[in-house]
């Protein structure tokens, strides 16, 4: 890595009405470096990157690219300069193939009357040679979220980039896929390509990046070499205070009643999972670990009747849990939060209050079954206060909230039906470290009130930190259970990869 600067941002500010998203921000990116940007949601990271990519225009300040002042007026201009941007939010065309998505930009400017599908697929296969074994002929809508994220990354790799911006690129990836991405990033940096890496995951920053810049409340705070600081230093700069309790204390021995809230025996869905048996006890947080594609989510969805063709015995307390629809699961007090928050967790364009009430409208209905806005608002205010939800008005759309507060709305929606069992799939994906700590606290408080909680997480530090014990899934089966001192990343990965089986 050389010391010369390819991108210099000087005194940039940006406001949206009365909200100052960026205030006199400075930033430098060197050639051939992997430079992390860290900050809580709302810190200004994405706004700054949208300015670099030409999506937004700054109110003031200058951008110097390769030694020359530039005004980047559009993403097309940014791409022409050699700036590629992989956004956190997936923005693919679902009804066309992987190959067509990857080469859409070049196809749009082509003068050919006919599409060379064979050539597209051949070129796409070459792009995926190192990244994944995704079939370029598949329609994007048929891909998992993790594979869609890989398609977004592949699109950027086809561009002749001098700067590559990656915004939370591993949020939907398996550990194996993430490691492949990190190797590609280092190879690109060795070729002189500069990478801006936005992430909330301290392990990724410290394992793969050269420098890290911290933003807070729309302001630039500091830039340091990662070898010269600690993850705690970065987190404390991000939030402006010391966070030393990311994970609350686990269930104490005197809190363990042994009472089984949910018993699953021999749960099977051909081709997805088989012979899955476990107990979820009152007041505990049970973790589910495993590689993406191992069947983790399908198992939980199968319990809630969100998967077809599932057999096995399920008991909720002393009663048989024989349901046919998710509506019946909700009515029995078993609720599920999807890993796809914006697709399945919340309705972005409707109000906070309407989102929270969505699972049981009868609770906020007045005479003749018509929704009473006052009841709906009161319910949202009460549950929102218990979760320390940050908002302007409960009538504001959920899209107006930060990622962490959107996730709190999704949790509030589940709490509105007073559940006995809560399943959460990737509960802190895409939220900042401060919001993560709050969500972990919320989950532990719910457990202490006797709710049974099952958490699926690809972040092993989170799974270990928040769970009382964890089941590890490998190829659709429970490979083992870990708890106490045996709940380590190494043991979990050995089980998840099929390399080792531990006694429960």
Query: Unreliable runs, pLDDT <50, ≥5 residues?
Result: none
Distance from N terminus to C terminus (CA atoms, Å) equals 48 Å
CATH topology of the largest domain: Rossmann fold
> What's the overall average pLDDT, rounded?
88
| Cα radius of gyration in angstroms | 24 Å
User: Which of globular, elongated, flat, extended, rod-shaped describes the shape?
Assistant: globular
Largest sheet: 6 strands, mixed
Number of domains: 3
What would you call the structural class? alpha/beta
Strand fraction: 15-25%
CATH second-level architecture of the largest domain: 3-Layer(aba) Sandwich
Provide an overview of this structure.
- It is a single chain.
- The chain is α/β, with parallel strands linked by helices and 504 residues long.
- The chain has three domains: 5-239, 3-Layer(aba) Sandwich (Rossmann fold), CATH 3.40.50.300; 245-333 and 419-504, P-loop containing nucleotide triphosphate hydrolases (Rossmann fold, 3-Layer(aba) Sandwich); 349-410, no CATH class.
- The protein is 33% helix and 25% strand.
- It has helices spanning 45-52, 75-81, 98-102, 104-109, 117-127, 145-157, 175-190, 202-208, 231-239, 296-303, 326-331, 341-345, 352-357, 373-386, 403-415, 433-448, 460-466, 489-496; strands at residues 5-16, 19-30, 34-38, 60-65, 68-70, 83-86, 163-167, 194-198, 211-216, 219-225, 260-269, 273-281, 285-289, 311-316, 319-320, 334-337, 421-425, 452-456, 469-474, 477-483.
- The protein has a six-stranded mixed sheet with strand order 6-7-8-3-9-10, sandwiched between helices.
- The chain starts with a strand and ends in an 8-residue tail after the last helix.
């Amino acid at each position: 890595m050389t010391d010369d600067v390819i991108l210099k941002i000087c005194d940039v500010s940006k406001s949206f009405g009365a909200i100052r998203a960026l205030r006199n921000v400075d930033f430098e990116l060197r050639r051939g470096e992997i430079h992390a940007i860290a900050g809580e949601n709302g810190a200004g990271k994405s706004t700054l990157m949208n300015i670099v990519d030409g999506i937004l225009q700054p109110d003031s300040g200058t951008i110097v690219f390769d030694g020359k002042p530039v005004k980047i007026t559009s993403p097309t201009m940014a791409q022409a300069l050699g700036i590629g941007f992989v956004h956190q939010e997936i923005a693919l065309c679902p009804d066309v193939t992987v190959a067509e998505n990857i080469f859409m930009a070049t196809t749009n400017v082509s003068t050919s009357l006919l599409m060379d599908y064979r050539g597209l697929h051949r070129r796409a296969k070459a792009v995926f040679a190192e990244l994944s074994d995704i079939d370029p002929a598949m329609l994007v809508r048929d891909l998992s979220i993790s594979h869609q994220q890989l398609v977004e990354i592949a699109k950027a790799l086809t561009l002749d980039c001098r700067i590559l911006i990656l915004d939370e690129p591993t949020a939907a990836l398996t550990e194996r896929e993430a490691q492949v991405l990190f190797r590609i990033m280092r190879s690109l940096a060795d070729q002189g390509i500069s990478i801006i890496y936005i992430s909330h995951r301290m392990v990724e920053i410290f394992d793969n990046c050269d420098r890290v810049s911290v933003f807070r409340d729309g302001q630039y705070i500091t830039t340091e070499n990662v070898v010269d600081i600690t993850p705690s230093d970065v987190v404390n700069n991000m939030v402006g205070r010391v966070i030393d309790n990311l994970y609350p204390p686990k269930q104490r021995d005197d809190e363990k009643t042994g009472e089984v809230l949910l018993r699953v025996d021999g749960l099977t869905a051909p081709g997805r999972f088989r012979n899955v048996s476990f107990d979820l006890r009152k007041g505990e947080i049970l973790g589910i670990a495993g590689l993406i594609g191992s069947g983790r989510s399908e198992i939980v969805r199968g319990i809630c009747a969100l998967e077809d063709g599932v057999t096995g015995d399920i008991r909720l307390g002393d009663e048989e849990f024989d349901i046919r629809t998710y509506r019946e699961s909700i009515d029995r007090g078993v609720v599920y939060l999807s890993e796809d928050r914006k697709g399945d967790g919340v309705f972005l364009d409707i109000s906070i209050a309407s989102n929270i009430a969505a699972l049981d409208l009868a609770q906020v209905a007045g005479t003749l079954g018509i929704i009473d806005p006052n009841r709906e608002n009161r319910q949202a205010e009460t549950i929102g206060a218990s979760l320390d939800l940050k908002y302007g008005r409960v009538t504001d759309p959920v899209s107006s909230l930060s990622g962490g507060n959107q996730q709190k709305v999704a949790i509030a929606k589940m709490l509105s039906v007073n559940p006995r069992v809560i399943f959460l799939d990737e509960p802190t994906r895409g939220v900042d470290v401060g919001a993560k700590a709050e969500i972990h606290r919320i989950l532990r408080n719910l457990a202490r009130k006797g709710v049974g909680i099952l958490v699926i997480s690809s972040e092993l530090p989170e799974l270990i930190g928040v769970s009382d014990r964890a089941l590890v899934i490998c190829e659709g089966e429970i490979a083992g259970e870990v708890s106490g001192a045996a709940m380590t990343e190494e043991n979990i990965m050995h089980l998840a990869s099929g390399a080792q089986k531990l006694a429960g």
